[in-house]
Amino acid sequence: MRLNSYDGWSPLQEVIVGSAENYTTHEQELSFRLFFYDNLATQRSFYDQQYYPVVSAPGEGSRPAAGPQSPIKKRYVEELNEDVEGIVQTLESLSVTVHRPMPLAEATRVETLAWPAAVLPPLNIRDNTLILGDEIVETPPQVRSRYFETQLLKKVFQGYFQQGARWTVMPRPVMTDASFDPSYAERSPGSPAEFITEPKSSPYDLGFEMMIDGAQCLRLGKDLMVNVSTANHALGCDWLERHLEGRFRIHRVALTDNHIDSMVLALRPGTLLVRTPQVAELLPEPLRKWDMIFAPEPEVNAFPTYDDDDLVLTSPYIDLNVLSIDQETVLVNEACPELRRTLERHGFTTVPVRHRHRRLFGGGLHCFTLDTVRRGSGPEDYLS
């Protein structure tokens, strides 16, 4: 089918589901620590290993060194792969065509002009791509290890392009240490870590660069709500506004550090799933008129127990990250019965799937999927 996806609730016909093959480690270099700062900064292992400050020593070269490795236990990856395959089978049972990225063939390291990094597999594929109607937009990554992630999606993207889709790649950042705006982390309440004040200099420094993820955007037909919390995000949003002028309206919000889909999701026109009333107050005025379903507090027993050396990358609200099949049907983690009951009380049919280690791998059901074809004739105006 031709690429066609303007929102997150129209009947889902085709979707890409990520792959965790050869997921072995997290590399805790600057971009990774900045991106996951909200969750990493509260973990004992984070400051036991004294990752801060990262400042050039006299005589050092201009290239940042590889960051400390945090290996992921093999059993977690095996269970993750089981759960991802279960998600695929459930989607296919709902008559959804599932595409898969090319798997990461082996643990791989890459080097650019400015840095080295270990390559992550294409698991949280919502993050680095934004589907806007008939256009694929590859967004500029925020984590060095994910710089080449969309290369593993090219086979699927090529297929849609051959069927008529537009295919755009936003400018790629150089990603020297000076490229990153650390202000969000520096102003975070109770921040336990001393952040760098003098990043390692590089001959490729450009100042702050555009970096923004597709998962920072909530698609609402003709409207796009974009979370902006750093200068990097602001530059990315500037690019989106200019590129989409006359086709989409952009609404900037400041809800969270990066991704919006564990804060608010639109389940159908006029209905939002929202983390808290405080988040609802920060939404654009037209959206504050919509019905709000507030997610129940996460249950402690909904998550596995991990060791001190296991990095927890998401908040307990990660299961708000659901995937809508249509306006009545929602894929929900089976570990969240209260969330399922809440949605069912509001008239939704929930489909449970198993997803155990979402906090270790940084993504829920919405993150692991990228909807490419939803039934509909074009962008509707839901906010005027």
Structural class: alpha/beta
Known CATH architecture: 5-stranded Propeller
How many H/I helices? 9
CATH fold-level label: L-arginine/glycine Amidinotransferase, Chain A
Give the number of domains: 1
| Element-by-element helix/strand order | EEHHHEHEEEEEHEHEEHEEEHEEEHEE
Mean pLDDT: 90
Placed side by side, the strands forming the largest sheet appear as 4-1-19
Number of strands: 19
Superfamily (CATH H level) name: L-arginine/glycine Amidinotransferase, Chain A
Distance between the termini: 30 Å
Spatial extent as radius of gyration = 20 Å
Beta content comes to 15-25%
Principal-axis shape = globular
What is the C-level CATH assignment?
Answer: Alpha Beta
List unreliable stretches of 5+ residues: 44-60
Largest sheet: 3 strands, mixed
Helix content: 10-25%
Structure, described:
The chain is an alpha/beta fold. The chain has one domain: 5-stranded Propeller (L-arginine/glycine Amidinotransferase, Chain A), CATH 3.75.10. It has 9 helices and 19 strands. Strands 4-1-19 form a 3-stranded mixed sheet, covered by helices on one side. A 3-stranded mixed sheet has the order 7-8-9, with helices on one face. It has a 3-stranded mixed sheet with strand order 10-11-12, with helices on one face. Helix 8 links the parallel strand 14 and strand 15. The longest helix is centred in the N-terminal third of the chain and has 20 residues. It starts with 11 loop residues before the first strand and ends in a 10-residue tail after the last strand. 46% of the residues are buried.
